[in-house]
Amino acid sequence: MESSDGLAVTLHEAHPGTTIVDDLGTWLTSALDDADAWDLPRGTVAPATDALCAAVQQYRGDLVLVSPEVGWGVVPATRSGRLFQDEMGTLNSRLAATCETVVLVVAGLPLPLKSDNPKTDDDSGSDFR
Hints:
- This protein is of the alpha+beta class.
- It has helices at residues 5-10, 24-34, 46-58, 79-98; strands spanning 18-22, 62-66, 101-106, 109-115.
- Strand 3 and strand 4 (109-115) form a beta hairpin.
- Helix 3 packs parallel to helix 4 (79-98).
- The two termini are 31 Å apart.
């Protein structure tokens, strides 16, 4: 995608197979760049994040979103770093509320955080492997 609004537009139609968005950190950086928002208050990119969240919520195909976890590290020293961390955390939280399944991957191991609609094809009751 060349601009941050391209992703929301693309997600308005289901695509065959599984759609993978890798990664939302790059998308958010583009949204902040497009809005020239690095020195503006938090929430300046809300129209772009609102559009993305709405597109994800209405998406009818299989969708995998890859996103950085930003809340476990050191608080960035720069204003732009703190802005990115805050906006990314807010976006991750909003998308986690919308998505049926949320998995945190640490050291290559999937840690299920949420599953509204688990597929069960073994005795464990989980599709996380």
